[in-house]
Amino acid sequence: MIEIVTIGVYGFDADHFFQALQAAGVEAVCDIRRRRGVRGAAYAFANSRRLQDRLAALNIRYLHRPDLAPSHALRHVQDAADAAGRVAKRQRTVLAPAFIAQYEQECLAGLDSAQLLADLSAYGHVIALLCVEQAPQACHRSLLAAHLTAALSSPVRHLRVKDEG
């Protein structure tokens, strides 16, 4: 049996990010970003090499699945919606309907969920889908997670930054 969790980088500091993964019992991180870098010194821990090194030190496996990431053109669809709504990427709380429709067509329509889950199970029983947005519903990882829910016997969990006060 495989369990899928999701996590975004924004809002976490390095220590809390890795603690959240460990507390959830994550055995592998599936990076579904096309570009595996994050701007800003506060998020340097999520840049590919640093992320992989820290995960290895924690005995958490890493895999990169760029085929599950939105294309450059599709990212521009969301960027345009963000600009029209005057919403900064890091403050986005929802995805644009046009982005959702295109992501479902481009990435999910031909996806064999059972095969993906079988592939992921080779890495462990608890797999985290990783991207950057803080709110799952503002990120394509929620669309992928919802797609996989139909093939799982348990719901997907979203790891979130805990409120400080």
Descriptive key words:
single chain, about 160 residues, alpha/beta, five-stranded parallel β-sheet, 6 helices, about 40% helix
Descriptive report:
The protein is α/β, with parallel strands linked by helices. 39% of the residues lie in helices and 14% in strands. The protein is built from 6 helices and 5 strands. The chain has helices spanning 14-23, 48-57, 72-84, 97-108, 113-121, 140-149, and strands at residues 3-8, 28-31, 61-64, 126-131, 157-159. Strands 3-2-4-1-5 form a 5-stranded parallel sheet, sandwiched between helices. Helix 2 (48-57) links the parallel strand 2 and strand 3. Helix 4 (97-108) packs across helix 6. The relative contact order is 0.26. The model has no long low-confidence stretch (mean pLDDT 92).
